[in-house]
Amino acid sequence: MNKIRILIMEHEKRVCRVLCRIIERLGFESLSVNEPADFESTCVEFKPDVVLLSLETIDVDHIKLLHSLIEQHSRATIILLSNMHEDETAALERLGQSSGLNMGGILRKPIDVDAVKSKLKELVPQNHTRPLKKSPQISRLFRERLASLYALNQAN
Fold it and tell me: Parallel, antiparallel, or unpaired for β 50-54 and 5-9?
């Protein structure tokens, strides 16, 4: 059984610890990156299903981070973490969408634990670790999402 993998790109280590705890309590696998220079190689090695991408990282061109995901043909769902002005954040989200990235929305900072849980539960169905063949009661949406994730893992 493969756990859903969530990569966190956040420069604040305290925020990373909080997000990792939330993610792991939901039953997902997490990995955090504090240095933008390590982001691309970590994405290649970890192969995340979801990326939590902080837009607060100092001296970082966020377009470059999105571009690295585009170059990797990433199928991960990208959630932007931001306290930037809504117009700037929405523009980055639209840029990701228009480039073919799977944008999963925006979570506002400071981080609201309930909002993070809700967003992740919305994107990843409850029974995410059950094998498809042993779970006939799972919803059609979950089956489609799981099949998509398996296909992406096989392709990579």
Answer: parallel
When divided into structural domains, the chain yields a total of 1
Q: Answer yes or no: is pLDDT of 97 > 80.
A: yes
Band (138; pLDDT cuts 50, 70, 90): very low
Q: What is the pLDDT of residues 19-46, one digit of tens each?
A: 999 999 999 999 999 988 899 999 999 9
Q: Does any domain span residue 37?
A: yes
Whether 133 is in a domain gets the answer: no
- Kindly tell me the sign of the dihedral angle through the C-alpha atoms of 28, 34, 12, 92: negative
Report residue 128's pLDDT band, with 50, 70 and 90 as the boundaries: low
| CA dihedral over 63, 116, 58, 41, signed as positive or negative | negative
The CATH number given to whatever domain includes residue 83 is: 3.40.50.2300
Range of the domain at 103: 5-124
| CA distances to 17, 40, 129 from 133, in Å | 35, 34, 12
Question: What are the DSSP E strand ranges found in the chain?
Answer: 5-9, 29-33, 50-54, 77-82, 102-108
